[in-house]
Structure formats: structure tokens, C-alpha cells
Design a protein that fits this description.
This protein is mostly helical. The chain has ten helices and no strands. InterPro entries: PA2201-like_C, PoNi_C, PoNi_N.
Length: 224
């Protein structure tokens, strides 16, 4: 879904935010007890930039470069604690890395952090093992049940359509980014994309021509 919005402006705002956060850390303007929050904000901004680039119609190489820029920030900031929101970040970064065909070396920089924190489940392991075959297979229930448990049963274009029409956005009703497209005061909408559905379609080779205009489905990314 590429709703009208000034994604180029948002990308510039996010880049300025990153510079501000980095300067606050380096200069000592921010107190050390704020460093973790600022580093997390840096990573989240990079991830939003990657998504906003896709929403803005950027090609594979632009989005791929944005994803690669996420990785050092992910390494520097991410620590998994069970809570709403972090699973989005993990599954989106992993899925976008699959769709952008990042190198195995760069991909394993992401999975090393998940491995360090003991994060694995049925959905993550399926997506990760498509590229990193040595990753431990897991049959454990999906960490963030809503909406992602339903993503483990996507085997056809109709399954994906049902997931996106009935489950995906509704299952994120408590997410910080939910309904950001309605915010008229602050430009904070980077797009709504079910990256995991696209990654699964690519991995399974699902025929998805009927999903070309499907809401929330990043069709172009599957066909890069």
C-alpha cells in the first residue's frame, strides 16, 4: 500500500534525527543512562528509512543499502526482552534482508544478535533457515502471537490475501506505528508492509500475481 505521503521528507527528517542522536551520544550531551534509548531510536530510524524508501518507489539497490545501514545500528542497540514491538523489528529486518538478497555474511550479523539473545520460534526459524541453513529449526509457538502466528500457515496467494485482509493490520492495533497515516501534525508514516508475508512468498515460490495491488503486500520486493 503506497498511500500518498511525503516519504522523501520523512527520510530527510529521520536522517537528521539520527545525526542528532549520534551527536548527543558522542558529545556527552546525553547522559550515559540515556545511551541505550538513543541507540534504539537510531536503529528504529534506520529501519523506518528502509521502509520509507520502498514506500517511495525506490529500487532494490536503494532499499538494500538502507537495510545494510540498519545492521550496525541493530548490533549496537538491540537486546530482546519480551514485549510488543521488538518482534516487529526482528521479523521485518530479517524479511527485508531476504527480499534484498543481502550477503550471507551480513545476514549472519543480524542472526548473531538473535542467537545471542536466545530468540527463535517457528516463524523466525523458517525464514532464517531459507538463507542460513545451519540455523536451529524451531517448532515453538510464535513469540508475538498476534498477528504472526497466522503467518506460519501461508501456503498460497489466497492464504496471504486472507492474512492481510483480516489479520495483519488488525493484529497490530497496539503497535506504536498503527494509524500513523492519520497523523496530520507529524510526518511519521513510513508505510505499512507485511514484509514477512513477502519473504514467505519468495521462499516458497508462491504464485502471487493476484496480489500485485494487495494492501500491505510489498509485491515489487518479491520480484526484485
Amino acid at each position: 500500500m503506497r498511500d500518498k505521503g511525503n516519504f522523501s521528507e520523512l527520510i530527510n527528517i529521520l536522517k537528521e534525527d539520527i545525526q542528532y542522536y549520534q551527536k548527543a551520544i558522542i558529545s556527552g550531551e546525553a547522559k550515559p543512562d540515556r545511551f541505550n534509548d538513543l541507540k534504539s531510536a537510531i536503529f528504529e530510524s534506520y529501519l523506518d528509512i528502509a521502509q520509507a524508501n520502498y514506500s517511495n518507489g525506490a529500487d532494490k539497490e536503494v532499499v538494500k543499502q538502507a537495510v545494510l545501514e540498519c545492521i550496525p545500528a541493530f548490533e549496537d542497540s538491540f537486546q530482546f526482552v519480551s514485549g510488543f514491538g521488538q518482534y516487529d523489528e526482528m521479523i521485518w529486518l530479517i524479511s527485508m534482508a531476504i527480499l534484498c538478497d543481502v550477503s550471507l555474511e551480513d545476514f549472519q550479523r543480524i542472526t548473531a544478535i538473535l542467537n545471542r539473545d536466545g530468540v527463535n520460534d517457528q516463524l523466525l526459524s523458517f525464514i532464517i533457515k531459507s538463507k542460513e541453513i545451519t540455523w536451529e529449526e524451531s517448532n515453538s509457538k510464535v513469540i508475538q502471537v498476534h498477528p504472526y502466528a497466522k503467518a506460519t500457515n501461508l501456503n498460497s496467494s489466497q492464504d496471504i490475501k486472507n492474512y492481510l485482509d483480516k489479520v495483519w493490520y488488525q493484529g497490530h492495533s497496539d503497535a506504536a506505528w498503527h494509524d500513523t497515516h492519520k497523523n496530520t501534525k507529524v510526518n511519521c508514516y513510513s508505510g505499512y508492509w507485511a514484509w514477512e508475508a513477502a519473504a514467505i512468498a519468495k521462499i516458497k515460490g508462491i504464485e502471487d500475481s493476484s496480489l500485485k495491488t494487495q494492501k500491505y503486500y510489498p509485491y515489487d520486493a518479491v520480484h526484485w
